Amino acid sequence: MGDEYADQAVIRRLLNESRTWAFVGLRDNPAREVHTQARLLQQRGKRIIPVHPAAETVLGETGYAALADVPEKPDVVGIYRRAEFAGAAVDEAIAAGAKAVWLPLDVVDTAAARRAKEAGLEVVMDRCPAVEWALRR
């Protein structure tokens, strides 16, 4: 994969300038990594939007069953699904008008990342927001 989807300028821009992150796969389960990452970004001033078929309220934010149900365009869509399901979520992010997608560690779908880039989205793949936040200092 190389660094094509780990451009440090893109990572810094998304962490520094984005305001709204939709988290696909976010439920009210603090034991899950997506919950940890959403909480971290929320603590750093980002608005988080939970997206999960259960549509639960998480970290005080209203949840939605699908990205298509979210009433605003998120700056970044974090896709916390297994790699085999990531492509469909990337396509939903494109359709929802997101500006970027972020696929966490071990979630790699190069074809979906290419589709997102071709649609004009910025793409970060196989990277952890918490680790990148610590490294940006």
From TrEMBL:
CoA-binding domain sequence ranges: 14-107
Alphabetical list of SMART domains matching this protein: CoA_binding
Record's protein name: CoA-binding protein
Taxonomic path: Bacteria, Bacillati, Actinomycetota, Actinomycetes, Streptosporangiales
